[in-house]
Amino acid sequence: MRVIVTDAEVTMADVLALRMTVDKPLTDGAELVLRHRGTGLERRVELDGARQDAGSAEVAVALPRLALTPGRWDAYLQQDGPRTRMPSIDPGFSLDRLDEYALRRRELAYRAYRTQTGYLALKIDEARPVADVRAVWFREGRFEATGLLAYTGFADDDERRRAHLELRHPEDAEVSVTALATVRGVRFHVALSLCDVIAAAPDFEGLWEPLLFVDGLDEPLPLAARIDDVDGRRRRVHYPATTVDGVRIRPCYTTDDELRLEVGG
Amino acid sequence: MKICFLVPSAFDMRGDVRAVINLAAELATRHEVEILSVRRTREKPFFPVPDRVGMRWLIDSRPGRRYLLPRGGVRVEVELWRALRGLRCDVLVTTRPTLAVQAARHAPKGVVRVAREWTRPATPGPIRRHYPRLSAVVASTERTREEWRHALDDAVPVHHIPDALPPDPLPRSRLDNRIVSAGGRWVPVKGFDRLIQAFAIVADKRPDWRLRLYGGGSEEKRLRNLVGRLGLHNHVLFMGTTPDLPGEFAKASVVAVPSLAETPGMTVIEALGCGVPVLGFDSSRGPGEFVTSGRDGVLVPEGPGEIEAYASALLALIDDERRRQALAAGALEKAAGHAAPAVAAQWERVLAELRP
Q1: Could you tell me if B318 and B347 lie in one domain?
Q2: Between the N and C ends of chain A, which has fewer C-beta atoms within 10 Å?
Q3: Has residue B19 been placed in a domain?
Q4: C-alpha pair distances (Å), B348 with each of A4, A147, A213, B352
Q5: So what's the ipTM on this one?
Q6: Which fold has domain A3-126?
Q7: Looking at beta carbons, which residues of chain B come within 8 Å of A240?
Q8: Is A141 helix (H, G, I), strand (E, B) or coil?
Q9: Chain B hits for A88, Cβ within 8 Å
Q10: Contact A136/B233, CB-based, under 8 Å?
Q11: pLDDT digits (tens, 9 = 90+) for B276-319
């Protein structure tokens, strides 16, 4: 059976909506097979009630009831014989949709994407609340960052919330630097004096961990860059360094895309 | 028909390698096709080669491999001579003038020998002496065909067949992301510094747009320094290399091609195939050979004020979604001429005429 996925989207309600061109109509018993890439675990869903026109079909599959685990799941279509991998021409990526999807509080984040070899797959991540960084600067002796709060359940409105940024020393829990932060709706802006950072631990060389505390959230939010398709920001984005009192400071990302402030080095 | 493509290295990230693999993959659905790589420079080919295409290499040049005598060019000549003398195929397609000269000298006479050319004839002496022994020259553009015709003085038939897109369906851009993409080797001729300078003007006016640079090369440090100097660290992402450039282009709303010379132009063709408008410079060997300004892309004149003009054109595209949609439709139309089955059929016609 020949199939090409023309549209693939995970809706806000975590329903996988697919539009496909097919050379044969989908019959009763046609199944969508999802196969976990690491373990080989499989989940099967019967595609009952697919809307079909000549040469095309639309299906919707509710993902939460499949009990999928985090990781990457390859998609196959099975009907009258061996399963077929599903080539996709949907680029599987929309920045605005990802931002919208991240507005809700979630435990798992599902994303339909096109693999490098051109097939449909699902990427599932654990979705913890995060302050998603969109821009970082050093301005007038301050470190500044701005972005969106993701998976917090906050509405994208103009409501102000009390918030502060805490820069944590990685080795000494007693040492930290705090500064007020601005949160309006899901947008945040933080600014921190670099002199305060140097003064808090004059001899320290290493990575400070920034955390955003927002009223209404139980846990502080890590500053990270997760709500797009770019993995491995550490090598893709090089922020410029600045020097304060002879000490070099540079923002950088960890291997799991969390923002850090590197002092010295 | 057994067809052999002779390439300097089928393992590298180059547009001509991509073009050969695309064509070989399509021809292999009906013929026995093999890619003969003079060098093997890495473990696996950068671009995936389908199983139906055979793959051989002559010299293992992976890092850490050392040979005793003969070394360097002599070793290449010896291995190539040996391979060409023992070649068993109906058609041999070479992909560099140096390889075409060797094929003209050493390949068996019964083999149809075709030189695939992307650039103008650079060494007229050896070409005039050896190319008349070839069966044909196949140029990738009309302009290249005229140049080769002129250089060879009609001693060999010169045809024009465009490069092929991959046989598999290409992703289709929705043109809804605030992303400008550019891809290719980061070398001076690709002109990425001009693009970054132009994007500084764009980012100032449209700060929510991002530029993604795909590829790798000797210019990386210089380009990163330029990005730092212009304060574009939040706007320009160095995405690195990818074997799936069309997949990344399809996420963008505009593909920028700032190169001084665009040969073979696979990035432009792939961008068109994904339905993304192309913005380039109207240089003599730039993307103008593949793009019709105002129909499937926009070409900006080179010369004084070119950076500002390029930035203005980019801003105009960013601000006009309907124009982007119209250009995208034109891009898909243009890309139809590069569809693998259509291109492979042209090759089959030419080869059928040449075979005894």
Answers
A1: no
A2: C
A3: yes
A4: 28, 55, 67, 6
A5: 0.92
A6: Immunoglobulin-like (2.60.40)
A7: 228, 231, 233
A8: coil
A9: 171
A10: yes
A11: 999 999 987 888 889 999 999 999 999 899 999 999 999 999 99
